[in-house]
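Appendix B, example 12.
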Amino acid sequence: MTWHKEHRSDDGVMRLVVDSPVVRHVEQTWPEFGRDPRHLRFGLASDGVLPYGVKSSSHSTWPVVLTNYNVSPWLASKKGFLLLSLIISGPKKVKNIDIYLEPLVEELQQLWTGVDDVYDGRTERIGRDRWFTLKGVLLWTMHDWICPSLGVSNIRDLRIQHLLDPMHIEANVTKSLIKRIFGEKDGKPTRRACEEFRVHPEAWIQVSDGGIESLPPAPWILTTKESPRCHLRLVSTNEMGLFQDGSNNGH
């Protein structure tokens, strides 16, 4: 658990996580992490997976994994060192992931505060107290959520809070855009958003004298003449392998 302390770069070149400005910021802001290398440094990651190897929209599986940066990088991502904290599984993709993360957040908060009477069996070799208070810090999160909220005390004081996955975000935004221009993802929530942000007033929901709501034609939806031409272009792009179904390319 002290590998990161013993293998830091001394020439100013960042080769390991421990060489990053984020770790230096943590140790300067909370000196106890610099004094005792046994305190844990974590990264939290999550992404959707296909557990059965078949692309399907009928099931959603999201593992949430903690990476332990105290150990060497070739061990941190190996089986036995990755900490599978929870699996969010269900028939549909979760819209509010914060609810499922609450138990994990509570445990991370407990580690941040400190866990007393932790036994260190290697103290004879490293010359430290056998019993000590173990603390843990979450360095960052890795995901493709646009705006996650994680209620760990230290997260808002970090220089980098989230490591976003631009490849997945790009793909998700592109797919959503294509569905919208073809009219597949158009509805009242979209029109209300336009009204809230005061854009495209011609697309706002219209209410008749009898209180019946209707959706006027949206300017972003392709016309009957434009739609086939755009579809052909997308098909040709897909045949080139740039936008294949199931890939993470959003180009």
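Residues 242-251 have pLDDT under 50 and may be disordered. Residues 98-113 form the longest helix (16 residues).
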